[in-house]
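Give me structure tokens for this 85-residue protein.
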Amino acid sequence: MEKTQQDMQEIRSARSRFIAMAATYFLGVFNDNFFKQAALLLAVVAGLSGLQGKATMLFPCHLSSFRPMEAGWPTGSPRSRLLSG
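Here you go.
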């Protein structure tokens, strides 16, 4: 099956979008984990090592508490047209 120039352009475009999405995800995960570990290390240095377990359980709460609000934001804005196509 022969690929045309247009097919190759679509493949390059899809790859660049995927790489951008993967890089953004990686940097977000790295940022979250870096700050979590920094906060836990600061607690140990401050002599509050007993709070590490509670802080570890408390840290992801902001992710689940604000997720419903975030889910509704793109639906009413013109940005939703960009995301869907």
